[in-house]
User: Fold these one by one.
Assistant:
Number 1:
Amino acid sequence: MEISGALILVIVFFGLLAIGTPISFSIGLSTIATMLVTIPPMPSVTTVAQRMATGLDSFALLAIPFFILSGQLMNRGGIARRLIEFAKVLVGRLPGGLAMVNIVAAMLFGAISGSAVAAAAAIGGFMVPLMKKDGYDTDYSAAVNITSATTGLIIPPSNIMIVYSLATGGVSIAALFIAGYIPGIMLGIGLMIVAGFIAKKKKYPLVPKITLKEALIRFLDAIPSLLLIIIVIGGIVLGYFTATEGSAIAVAYTFILSVLIYKEVKWKDLGRILIDTSATTAIVAMLIGTSMAMSWIMSYENIPQTISASLIALTNNKVIILLIINVVLLIVGMFMDMTPAVLIFTPIFLPVVQQLGVNPIHFGIIMIMNLCLGLCTPPVGAVLFVGCGIAQTSVAKVVKYLLPLFIAMIIVLMIVTYVPWFSLFLPRLFGY
């Protein structure tokens, strides 16, 4: 019964994906098909609907539409441009100046918006033309923009961390948020090291020197944007408000900044921003709902327990099991969006690693870093396609420049996987 249920689920799911069915529909229909065959008396469609509704009935998930709206306001409110100018002050004189600026600006923007796609679009929209004008290869510029945009999912606030908290049944969102800082910064530094080597080899130019007065002006101009990090994350970590309340504060703050202070978002633009936010939220909600239904049928069929027992029977070596999980997640990330991947595979792998003494917070960072790589790979890499679209180039041309940056990301992933201190130092410091 268990094997047949698992086979039906896998065959129908991947079969639907192969013919181009949207992933949320593939998840929902494969779940219904499994229910029809394995538990026929049950009204499958009704059960799936109930599980979807139950899965979405969470106060923590209210943070997602707020953070999406906040990111939309930032994307159009001139915040990206100010962060780029500030990044030029910080790293513009390093080898490969504009590539370094792209990476740091993406880290800062991601730390404010929590969206990799938004970072790729907003930062790439400014940086790729600048890099091309300064003699950088367009495909290399796209590769730097694509990989650096993923840091925004590790450096908080991050919607995917909220989803992981839901999948675990209660891991602190605040603890996950602060756990992401050191690994996210490490990932950015890894990309900068590779970009520096490539810049020296290609003899790319540095950013022109900036006077102390100009540097101070750019810093002051960026302070209102950077304050959002302190207000939202600081308030969540110190317990002044929850992640959901913090997301609402982020919307209020970015509205004041983009509409009333910078005035780069016009009142007439708010309707379109709200429509775009609603569309994105609906997609995420559909993914979460159908993934929760699939997680339920997997649990009913004892699939997580079977896989967990098989892994433990294969070996009880912590190093090998973590390596196997990393490989599986890297492959999953190539074919599946992050949200369903986290909701489906967390119940499968978390019990396994917990038996080996791995902290759920640490595992959350491992999982998210793994799946971030999938955003940069075909066939479903959203950031890859957005980055290529911004640069007006093709995936085939960008891949050769992506490879050394991928290697840097994988090295950082392995370090974070096997040295828990990087993920757990800050949460323990703040008492989590």
Number 2:
Amino acid sequence: MAAVEDFFSRDGAFSIGGAGLEAVLAANSTPLYAYSADLIDSAYASVKRCFPGFDIAYSLKANPALAICSRLRSLGAGADVSSMGELQTALRAGFDARDIFFVGPAKSEAEISLAVRTGIYAVIVESARELALVGACAGRLSRRQRVLLRINTAEPQTSPEVMVGGPSKFGFDEETVVNEVRGIDHPGIDIVGVQVYAASQVLEAGLIYAHMEYVLGLALRLADEAGFRLECIDFGGGFGVPYADDERDLDIAAVSKRANKLMGKHAGRLGGCRLVFELGRYLVARSGVFLTRVVGVKESRGRRFVLTDGGMNAFSRPVFMGVRHPVRLVNKMGAPAEEEYDVCGPICTPIDCIGRGVKLPRVEPGDVVGVFNAGAYGYTMSLMNFMSLPWPAEVMVENGRVETIRRPRPAAAALDDQVIPG
């Protein structure tokens, strides 16, 4: 994969969005998340360049920071939401309701009602029960709501995070969906297409193309067999980014070349059909770095431990998902790595280790550790309430300007939500 230094180093020193480390840390203490606006822009531009005929729906679950959502909306993205909170965030960020897709296996009646009232483009339904619920909500509101059928396909997948191919809480099983929806004529719904999210963190271009080919054939067949007009195909997403040094970048240009030819081959059937990718990680992961300051360094039975002020409480993904994020000593970016360390946070459990066996320059108290590719599934996937520690800030950096986009939350703030009975 491309080295971290290719994106976050200038003249041997840490740099993000034209700002150095001192500027990033000037307004907020560690731990904190910093995001490069330019890297978000370039990731979105690369996808649109490769897939000009596709709409890109940003998956808010990757990072729902309002400033990031607003930026992607300004670039032309739609929104893929999975909860009432994400829908409200998308609307506040300025996404047009006609570019919002609502997906998720356990939508509540309140969530569906809000989606219908808002007039979003499509609710992606995952069962016959949910299809009936959308119809009932739309009927009560005297609205018509487009729906896409989420399909649990039989296609083979080899990604670490596979969501199709076996028993699943997600979607209609491919082999039964026609019988479940054929003949449905609810006055509140219009079935207009299908959605398939097969796998996440896919780095092989061939797998993504094979998925697209499979879903295209499936959508055309289901439209005929279930009797609906095909107006939209949502191919899901799953575009991965490399984390470990031995992982390769996804070659989206290779996917593009074959996929665009495939769509052209079926242009007659796809005239006016909306083609959609749901992308989150691919758009924002590489933009982010998690910064945490070294409190101390110790050695125990032959192993060296770096102790930092932020660990699994503020960045849980390396611990619970086993992801090997790149780790650097950002105040010594140009120094050679000399020793091997385990980078651990302040949490009272031995699993609180956000980097194991990491080679770094000699570490001293006061140094700053950067954990990279942290723009997706970082802040909002973490255990912020554990041990009542402060919550980190988030900053966006562009043209050397550092702007706080989410203020830090002091530990005492959690007490404001609590009462002592009696």
